[in-house]
Design brief:
By secondary structure, the chain is of the alpha/beta class. The protein has 2 domains: about 90 residues, 60s Ribosomal Protein L30, Chain: A (2-Layer Sandwich); about 150 residues, SPOUT methyltransferase, trefoil knot domain (Alpha/beta knot, 3-Layer(aba) Sandwich). Helix content is about 35%, strand content about 25%. The strands form 2 sheets. It has a 6-stranded parallel β-sheet with strand order 8-7-6-10-9-11. Helix 6 links the parallel strand 6 and strand 7. The relative contact order is 0.14.
C-alpha cells in the first residue's frame, strides 16, 4: 500500500474531489459503509485508509477488495474526510448507471424538490428496506450521490433504482395507464388507517419547507394523512416516507 505524502499532487487532487463531486464519481466515507459495499460486490477502484485504521481495513477485507489502496497519515485523513468523526476509510467509486422505471406494481416514491441530501438518502434507505420499486427525483432535488446522501442511505443509493430529473407529468401518465394511482402526503386527506391505494402506486412527497407544490398536488388522485399527536404539526419528509411505506407494505401483506 503506497503512502500519500502530505503535499503530493494526488492528495491535493483528492481533496478537491472530496469537496466537489466529479461527474461519474461518488465519495463514500466510513469503514462500515464500505464494508457493506464490498459485501454487495460494488467495485472499489480507489481506497484511502488512515494509518490507524489499516489493521481493521485489512482484517475486514477492504484493502484486498480495492483496485488501488493508499495509506493516509491520520492527521491528514481527518482534514480530508467530509464527516466530523471519520472512521479512517474513504473510497471513491463509480456512479451507478442511470435507471429506468416502469409502473409494474408496488409503490414508487416521487420527491418534488427535496433539497437536503440527508433527507434524500434517508428516503432511499427506507424505500429499499420497505420494498418500494424506485425513488424518482424531480428536477431540483438534491444529488442522491452526494457523500451525505450516500451515507444517509446506508449505501443503498449505489444499488437501489433511482431515476433522476424526471417530470411528474409522464410519471402520472404511466401509472394511470397501468391502472394505478398517485397519492400525495398531506393534511385533511384520507386517514392512514383507511388508505387502500390501487397498484401500482406513486407516493408524492414535497420539499422540507413548502411541502408538495400546488401543481404537483393537483395531479395527485388523492391525499393521505398521517395522524399526529401532542400538537405536532408535521413530520420530517424522510420520517413521513417511512411511515407511509411501512403502512403500504403491511396492507399488501394483509397484516
Amino acid at each position: 500500500m503506497e503512502r500519500l505524502g502530505r503535499h503530493g499532487t494526488r492528495l491535493r487532487d483528492l481533496r478537491q474531489r472530496v469537496r466537489e463531486r466529479r461527474p461519474g464519481e461518488v465519495v463514500v466515507d466510513g469503514r462500515r459503509l464500505i464494508a457493506d459495499l464490498v459485501r454487495w460486490r460494488v467495485p472499489l477502484p480507489e481506497l484511502y485508509v488512515a494509518t490507524g485504521a489499516i489493521e481493521a481495513a485489512v482484517r475486514e477485507g477492504l484493502v484486498a477488495a480495492a483496485g488501488n489502496a493508499w495509506e493516509v497519515p491520520d492527521g491528514v485523513f481527518h482534514q480530508l474526510a467530509p464527516t466530523h468523526s471519520p472512521q479512517g476509510v474513504l473510497a471513491i467509486v463509480g456512479e451507478p448507471e442511470p435507471k429506468e422505471w416502469a409502473a409494474e406494481g408496488g409503490i414508487a416514491v416521487y420527491l418534488d424538490g427535496v433539497q437536503e441530501p440527508g433527507n434524500v438518502g434517508a428516503i432511499i434507505r427506507s424505500a429499499a428496506a420497505l420494498g418500494a420499486a424506485a425513488v424518482l427525483l424531480s428536477p431540483g432535488c438534491a444529488d442522491p450521490f452526494h457523500w451525505s446522501a450516500v451515507r444517509a442511505s446506508a449505501g443503498n443509493a449505489l444499488r437501489f433504482p433511482i431515476v433522476r430529473t424526471v417530470s411528474l407529468v409522464p410519471v402520472v401518465s404511466t401509472v394511470h395507464a397501468a391502472g394505478g394511482e398517485t397519492w400525495a402526503s398531506g393534511d385533511g386527506g384520507t386517514q392512514l388507517s383507511t388508505w387502500r391505494p390501487r397498484q401500482p402506486t406513486v407516493l408524492l412527497l414535497g420539499s422540507e419547507g413548502r411541502g408538495l407544490g400546488p401543481e404537483s398536488r393537483a395531479m395527485a388522485d388523492g391525499e393521505v394523512t398521517i395522524p399526529l399527536d401532542n400538537d405536532v404539526e408535521s413530520l420530517n419528509v424522510a420520517v413521513a416516507a417511512g411511515v407511509l411505506l411501512e403502512w403500504y407494505r403491511r396492507q399488501r401483506a394483509g397484516v
